[in-house]
Amino acid sequence: MQATISAVRNFCEWAALQGGDTCSEFELALSVVEWDSEITLPEPTNPPVADWHLETACGFSDEIGSPARAVADAVLADAHLLRWFDMYEHYDDEPDMAVFRRSYAYTPLIGLDGPLVCGELFMGISLQGPDIYYPPHAHKAVETYAIIGGTGDWKRGLEPWTSRAPGDLIAHPSGIRHAMQSNVEPLLALGFWTTDIDSPIVIVRG
Predict the structure, then answer these.
(1) DSSP string covering 14-31, please?
(2) Chain centre distance of CA 37
(3) According to a count of CB atoms within 10 Å of the terminal CB, is the N or C end of the chain lower?
């Protein structure tokens, strides 16, 4: 797990230097996380989506030596240590959400209940299987994403769909509606919340 935490820290240091609307969030992550603190290993799990798609998603990362590739390689090396969770149990009677839930999982890295404890943000890795639509959703938390492996399409608010690739950084201001669509490749992403880390996520219909 230390390999993944170290790679994520290095990625945040790189991302903080890229400018743009995610720079301050990566700077905040670097400042509030006690990166050298003790890591508590969770009981690992290996859900079908990880068993089927994690190695493939990591293989579709950026060029060797890039910050995104370093995270992908570390996640793959630590795969046997990761505990994955699904989401949206209360939406499982809706057919599109049932399909989504079978092909999506996330593993916490940093947070109140993460392997690396921090009370000021939540950070984790998400994995979305190929050809899976993550419907529009919103939350009060300010969120930042970084694509680690695979390519997909992203939509924020009223903006058009935009293709995203490894190394891309994406800002979600508080309350903005956003959606994701993976294509032929599974999608591996680093995501974190820096405000309202206990706020709920709401699927937005209509």
Answers:
(1) HHHTS-GGGHHHHHHHHH
(2) 22
(3) C
Secondary structure element (H or E) that encloses residue 179, with its range: strand 178-182
91-130 in b/e form (b: 16+ CB < 10 A) is eeeeeebeebbebbbbbbbbbeebbbebebbbbbbbbbbb
The CATH number of residue 157's host domain is: 2.60.120.10
Instruction: Give, to the nearest 10 degrees, the angle between helix 67-77 and helix 2-16.
Output: 170
Residue 91 confidence (pLDDT)? 85
How far is 187 from 153, CA to CA, in rounded Å? 10
Phi first, then psi: give them for residue 99, nearest 5 degrees.
Answer: -65, -45
- What's the chain's average pLDDT? 97
How many domains, in total, are found in the chain?
Answer: 1
pLDDT value of residue 90: 87
Whose CA is closest to 187, among 135, 150, 148, 138?
Answer: 150
Q: Is the pLDDT of residue 206 over 80?
A: no
**Residue 162 pLDDT more than 90?**
yes
Give the domain range for residue 171: 2-203
Place of tokens 């996640």: 75
